[in-house]
Amino acid sequence: MENLQSVKMQGTLRISQEVIATIASCAATEVAGVAGLAVHTANIKNLFTKNAVNKSIVVTLSDDVAVIDIRLNLYSGTRIPAVSEEVQRAVKEAVQNMTGITVSKVNVYICDITFASLQEEKAQE
Predict the structure, then answer these.
(1) Which of 18, 17, 25, 33 has the alpha carbon at shortest distance from 94?
(2) What whole-number distance in Å separates Cα of residue 59 and Cα of residue 54?
(3) Which of 4, 12, 82, 106 has the most C-beta neighbours closer than 10 Å?
């Protein structure tokens, strides 16, 4: 039986920008204080398609180095600088660990504030 560690892989590996955007989305929405991704579309036609979510995160690749722009909605009462820094750290770490692609920048854009309803506030108490 052949030793699996001595087998060399031949070929290339390509990771699409959509996969990187999905990883970034998962990492960002797990941060406390993030209400979700802000829907950002170029036109109304894309509002109800899969592209609407992907436009919230824009990945630019250049020589295996990524720059990620992410648009978020935050909950009312969160500290915007602290949450933004945590999102940057979480997204960079997740993308680099899962893909091996170096992330040079994570630009965070806060697009809206989500206010909790009275029922949600009572449930938190």
Answers:
(1) 25
(2) 9
(3) 106
DSSP state of 42: S
Q: Which residue has the tokens 């031949």?
A: 10
Amino acid code (one letter) for 27: A
Read off φ and ψ for residue 124, nearest 5 degrees: -75, -25
Contact (CB, 8 A) for 28 and 89: no
> pLDDT tens digits, residue range 3-25?
444 455 678 888 889 999 999 99
pTM for the whole thing? 0.77
Nearest 10 degrees: Cα torsion 9, 101, 60, 86: 150
> pLDDT of 39-66, one tens digit each?
865 555 555 555 444 579 999 999 889 9
105 phi and psi angles, rounded to 5 deg: -145, 145
Residues whose CB is less than 8 angstroms from the CB of residue 15 and which lie 6 or more positions away in sequence, other chains included: 99, 101
Going by C-beta distance under 8 Å and a sequence separation of 6 or more, which residues neighbour residue 26? 94
Q: What is the DSSP letter of 76?
A: T
